Amino acid sequence: MSTDSRTVIVGLDGVPFGMLKKFGETGVMPNTHEIIKNGYFSKLRSSIPEISSVAWSSIITGANAAEHGIFGFIDTHPGTYSMRFPNYTDVKVKPFWEVARGESVIVNVPATYPVRPMNGVHVAGFVAIDFNKSVYPSQLVPLLKDMDYRLDVDASKAHTSMDDFLEDVDKTLDARIAAYRYLWKNQDWQNFMLIFTGTDRLMHFLWCAYADENHKYHELFVDHFRKIDVVIGEIVADLNENDTLLILSDHGFEGLETEFYVNRLLIEKGLLQFNPGTDPNLSNIAYGSKAFALDPARIFINQKGKYPEGSVAPEDRESVITELTAVFSEFEINGKKAIKHIYRKEDVYSGPYIDEGADLILIAESGINLKGAMGAKQMTGKGPFTGKHTLDDAFLLINKKIDAGQLPPTPSVIDAGQYIKSKVS
Ligand SMILES: [Zn+2]
Prior knowledge:
The protein is of the alpha/beta class and 425 residues long. Helix content is 32%, strand content 20%. It binds zinc ion. The site of zinc ion has 4 residues, from helix 7.
């Protein structure tokens, strides 16, 4: 192993500041608690929107979406309504491991599929489709398969049997830990990044089990975090004095009360229409539609010259933004406002790819989960999820105090990414 000062990053996907603090204080995560007591511990602001592909892309590049080019899990091909799934080849800024000193081992970072040659080892995180395109160098594929390594939890199991889902979550975690232990020992690394993503899956389906100590799955939920804390303890024990350990999440989480299908509101307000007799999807959008939403709640104006059925003239963009802002800011669910923030892309993004971003990005009030859901029959509903992402309460934990000025008060995922780049280069 290298003797130069090393950087280790452990990601806990979706884990909120308050949960980590609580698990530290209540003895679930004693090793993490020691770091919290002696190091730097802050809330971290997620990306806008607060989803993993955008946020982790900012963490690994130190850039905002208009620079790195990842705005969501789904987007349209430029100038069309046809859907595409952006992946690692769309990330326009080099991740830290491509500018770092020495070798890096990168395990399970979301939105880094398919892998490409780099100095070290890279195992992609979700969404990763083909195992063979998820591992660099490819000689490691058989070894990982022998470990029963899984690229992601099979979340579909949660829809049929919560016991099967939890078993899958646990096996996925065990295999991830086995892979980390092997690579930690056998690679001559300078930088190591390991992300746990089962945390996000667990919180989506079983936030209810976290919130209720008498829930039948409460202990299983907590055990997942106990296992992760053991890994954190191992890592700390193996660090040298000059090494830096960062533990962070990409967004926070809270209980989900209602889903709000934002395209349904656009349809009911006459702002989005489909050609008569066709299915409600973007390829059937009718001329005259003013806007549409892509997940989770990115609102695109159907602008003339930008889309084939675009009908809003560029000079009318401002008035449509005003109209949309009024529609969303006034909308209430059970007598309470549904939308907390309406961000204009100019206010949250800056960079060469800003034109690809949504015109407006909505952030919901507490308990409300936003979805595009073009085909939804109602405005609101409730699916199998009991937890949802939050914007303001991800966390950043570092194993040492930080010099003033190295990070702003309440840093963002972009600040965290820039800090990481400064450490490794
Ligand atoms: Zn999630």
